[in-house]
Amino acid sequence: MNGQYDPKRFFEFLGFDPGDQEYESENLETVNVFCRGDREQLERLLEPTPFTLESDIFQVTVADFANCTMTQGRYFDGGVLLAVSYGEHRAGTYFFEFEDEHWSTAAGRELWGYPKRYAKISMDVDDHGAKGSIWSYETPVLDIAVEFDDSVDPAAWSEAKLSPTMQVRAVPELNGPSFSQFDISLRDTAANFKLKQRRVGRASVKLGAVDIGSGLLGGEPLRVFEVLGGEHTVGDFAATRTHGTPVVLDSLI
To answer: Among the residues of 54-146, which ranges form H helices?
Structure first.
């Protein structure tokens, strides 16, 4: 090596951009289904985390970042969000999350602590409804569908605060039993989102191996007591320095 090495050059090797990156995705399409789950099971799932469950309503989602301006371009993501709190802060947390590109899986986990796993994702939308699917190789992870019906009232799921998002970014010790860094972060890209179209409707959900990366369910299904409804939205997404770069709420190590 000649001269002074700039550690930021290592992002070229990792294949994704730094944590303070700004990017947009015009006409982001998202399918969301809202479910009432088993509160006891959801609380048990949260036991390994520092979060407290705030609602038994959870969100199952698939999103198509077709017009993403990041260097690597398009990707899909999806998963399950729970409504949680940490101290005075209430937010949604991605508890099970999946990406269909290796770079976006690694970037989300390493930069911001999202619990991303690699999987294949698809979305189909027509005049009658919208569908989203996630599967890991041959293993079904989830399938959601919304049949458009304007009589469905979104108030049925409005009590659950699912944005902004709050995550744990934990960096394991290189040669020890714990973590060298353990941060609770808040990221509020929803503050930038410009909604263009929203259609609600009756929804269905089929949950398979949503815990395929962690096994936290121990062979049980993620239980759904009631499907409250769903939506398909189109809008302009933006991650900016103000609303996109995470804020560290607390550092436990």
So the answer is: 102-107
Phi, psi of 105 (to 5 degrees): -65, -50
Q: How many CB atoms lie within 10 A of CB 204?
A: 15
69: its two tokens: 């301006």
Helix (H) or strand (E) holding 139: strand 139-148
**In this structure, what are the phi and psi dihedrals at residue 236, rounded to the nearest 5 degrees?**
-95, 120
Radius of gyration of the chain (CA): 18
Spatial CA neighbour of 133 closest among 83, 76, 94: 76
Q: Which amino acid is at 45?
A: L
C-alpha span between 133 and 137 (Å, rounded):
12
Asked if the bond preceding 164 is cis, omega within 30° of 0, the reply is yes
Amino acid occupying residue 96: F
- Around Cβ 80, how many Cβ atoms within 10 Å? 25
Instruction: Return the number of other C-beta atoms located less than 10 Å from residue 77's C-beta.
Output: 24
HEC states along 217-231?
Answer: CCCCCCCEEEEEEEE
Give the tens place of pLDDT for each residue, 219-238: 999 999 999 999 999 999 99
pTM: 0.95
Tens of pLDDT, residues 35-52: 999 999 999 999 999 999
139 vs 133: CA distance, rounded Å: 11
The backbone torsions φ and ψ at residue 124, rounded to the nearest 5 degrees and listed phi first, read: -135, 130
Query: What torsion do the CA atoms of 223, 228, 232, 236 make, to the nearest 10 degrees?
Result: -90
